[in-house]
Amino acid sequence: MGSTAVADVVIVGGGIVGCMTAYELSQADLQITLLERGGLGQEASSASGGQLVPLHLAADGETSPLFEFHRGSTYLFDELVPALEDASGVCMGYERSGVPRVAEGENEHDRLKQTFTAWQRNVGMPVSWLDVDEVHRLEPGLGPNVLGGIFSPDERTLSSARFVEALGRILRARGVDVREGTPATGIRHHEQQVHAVETPQGEIQTPELVLAAGAWTGLCSQWFGLTVPITPLRGQMVAVRP
């Protein structure tokens, strides 16, 4: 039989969401345990493009509560990143370089121009229209079919892998019990109250549980007899030499 530990909060999942949750909670006087079945940030967080692009959620020109949340969160990084870099010594490659969205062909040009007009009216973020020459000055490698585009200067990028690395260093320095290679295998609970989280090394008694297991959150939710819908998101990235 494994040992028994105690924590005020147990967080299941050591990606960006789990680590950031632990970071915020570590600023309070709480005993926190973070469980990660592999290594910190080694699942979806390591494959993230690190793009802070809220306008992606308003592609039809309309906003939503999720867009508003994403937009507000994006601007928080201007203060968060320097604080994390100073505390960890990790450079995250944070760049506020903006994002172009381009149109190929007349139909796409007309659609994107309509989106631009809607964004000017609705999104509360600066955007500008790029004509053909401006698009090619910004991105000389684009082909001749590109007829124009939208540029949003406030969207930005960072290295998600370095972001998690920085958080991991800070969490350990603050005394968070970070357990890599330790999957959560179940819970002990009564009705809706958690009493303990089970691991191969023993259980951790806790009154509070945070599920931040990414694609596995749906499986973890079954511990409570619930089904949390998880939807995959397809994307592509290309790595190039500088």
Number of strands: 13
Q: What is the fold named in CATH at topology level of the largest domain?
A: FAD/NAD(P)-binding domain
Strand % is 15-25%
How does the helix and strand content classify structurally?
alpha/beta
* Total tally of structural domains: 2
Radius of gyration: 22 Å
> N-to-C SSE series?
EEHEHEHEHEHEEHEEEEEH
Residue-averaged pLDDT: 93
Please describe what this structure looks like.
The model has no long low-confidence stretch (mean pLDDT 93). The strands form 4 sheets. The protein has a 4-stranded mixed β-sheet with strand order 1-12-11-10, with no helix packed on it. It has helices at residues 16-25, 44-47, 65-88, 106-122, 132-138, 160-173, 217-221, and strands spanning 3-6, 9-12, 32-36, 51-52, 99-104, 128-130, 146-152, 156-157, 177-180, 186-190, 193-199, 202-205, 209-211. The protein is built from 7 helices and 13 strands. With 242 residues, the chain is an alpha/beta fold. It is elongated and about 65 Å long. It has 2 domains: 3-50 and 160-224, FAD/NAD(P)-binding domain (3-Layer(bba) Sandwich); 65-79 and 90-157, no CATH class. 33% of the residues lie in helices and 23% in strands.
Compile the SSE list and pairings.
Blueprint: E1 3-6, E2 9-12, H1 16-25, E3 32-36, H2 44-47, E4 51-52, H3 65-88, E5 99-104, H4 106-122, E6 128-130, H5 132-138, E7 146-152, E8 156-157, H6 160-173, E9 177-180, E10 186-190, E11 193-199, E12 202-205, E13 209-211, H7 217-221
Parallel strand pairs: 1-12, 2-3, 2-13, 3-9
Antiparallel strand pairs: 4-8, 5-7, 6-7, 10-11, 11-12
Helix pairs in contact: 1-6, 3-6
